[in-house]
Amino acid sequence: MIDRKAVHEWAQRYLACAGGKPQREFLENRAFGETCEALGFAMDGGQAFSRRFSEASFHDVRALAAHIMDVDDAALLGSAIFSKWRYLTRWAMGPADRENDPLVWFTLAFLRLEQLTAEERDHPQLFGRTVKKLILRSSECWFWALSEDGIKRQRLSFSESGRGTLSEDRVRMYPETATRLWTIPFRVHREKAAFLFQVLTLLAQSGLPKPEIRICDGGDWTLRLSDGEGHADIYDGEFPIDPGIFPGGLSAMIRRETGLSNAWAFDGHSWESITNLTVEFLPQWKETPAGAPQTAGQRREILELDGVADQLTYEKDGTRLTIRGGVRDQLEACSRDGMFAPPETRCQCAEAPVLFPDMDRDRCDLRYRIVVRYRRQPEQLLEGSFDRNGLPETWPAFADRVTAFFRSRTEGALMNPALYRWRPREAGEYIYCSVVFQEGGKRYHYRTEDETLRIGDRVLVPVGPDNEPKPVTIVNIEYFQPADAPFPPSRTKVILGRVK
């Protein structure tokens, strides 16, 4: 006879540290086996559990999920946990995280063990039946997500058959109006759907503590659970959305099983927090392209924003500058604004922005490398040409934020608008130069086919009805297709040449 209260407390201690490094430390601690013996569990290699259910349920997390709600013997399940731990730490000759989803296997087992040993008064159920369909509507949390553009709201409808839809709306609050942004119908394999609903059923019937509601939470959500037989309940605050007991969270599991890389409804917000961002500027010009600033030939630069240390580090020409404070908040702001979002959280529908537009690799050898590390998602490596075509579309806004950390203007390339806003000329485009007759004066457009001209050059242009040559200074160079030109190409005067 096992001590149900002691087993219940032990299961709760495990679940409190599940979902990350503390969970691995819990499993790899030698005291785990001693505790199992003290609680009265038998180490039988999982034989009793395998005979009752299947051998696969002892080794495979999906097979376990298929039987988990049928397990009604806490002593049998505890012995299976003890035997699984011994198998992974001794017989398998390797750490637990090398086995196929062992952390999720243990989490499911401990969730059920916690249920089986709980006192009725301490074990309120969310939904006492088998979950076969859910409808979840979740808005972005955090008050700072509110803006003139409103907030995003997702709706996930999913059934045990594997069919479902995911949609996203833009909601304005005063007055409340909703605009549908996109809808994605999906279908997953029945076995994957069954696994997810077995997990959801287990969570719905668990005795996990309610999530802490913080004063900064500004989102809302409603959850409708159904057993497919006419019984359904609606909840709006009692269900622990995205509990951290699974590696990466419940949202990550749903994204992985359904392939819905842009689903964040269980997260409560649509962004993944950036913890570290490292940018390298790699000058590799074969020759300086037309219109590119002279700074293109300078040396390598490294910029690192470390949210953990809350500091910014900038290296250039052997000089290192460190700025402390404000970095963590800035990275969180970048996360909220969708800068450098990981592929798993970017919308994959037709309206989704393109991360890297087509780039001219033959002419542009000025490169960059960005490594983005997130709180939960795997790190992301971004590479490309350092120009308007190759950089992420949010780079100008990011550069402005980083520049604010420096008390004086930096001469580096990473934050130089003239460099990151430049792009190579494409076929069929005309070169338009903005020129001024005196510093700070009015700008005028002239055309040229001289690709060697650069910003700051002094040139001669025709002026007036007699086309009298006048010296001017080039302040900007842009490329336009005829239909997009600021003035029709046939009516735009042409630069005569450089001032000698």
List the helices and strands and how they pair.
Layout: H1 4-16, H2 21-28, H3 31-38, H4 47-52, H5 55-59, H6 61-67, H7 74-91, H8 102-116, E1 133-139, E2 151-159, E3 163-172, E4 177-187, H9 190-204, E5 221-226, E6 232-235, H10 249-258, E7 274-282, E8 301-306, E9 311-316, E10 319-324, H11 327-336, E11 367-374, E12 380-385, H12 395-403, H13 417-420, E13 430-436, E14 444-448, E15 458-463, E16 468-480, E17 497-498
Antiparallel strand pairs: 1-2, 1-5, 2-3, 3-4, 5-6, 7-8, 7-11, 8-9, 9-10, 11-12, 13-14, 13-16, 15-16, 15-17
Question: What's the short story on this structure?
Answer:
The protein is α+β, with helices and mostly antiparallel strands. The chain is 26% helix and 24% strand.
List keywords for this structure.
500 residues, 6-stranded antiparallel β-sheet, 26% helix, 4 domains, 24% strand, Mago nashi protein, alpha+beta
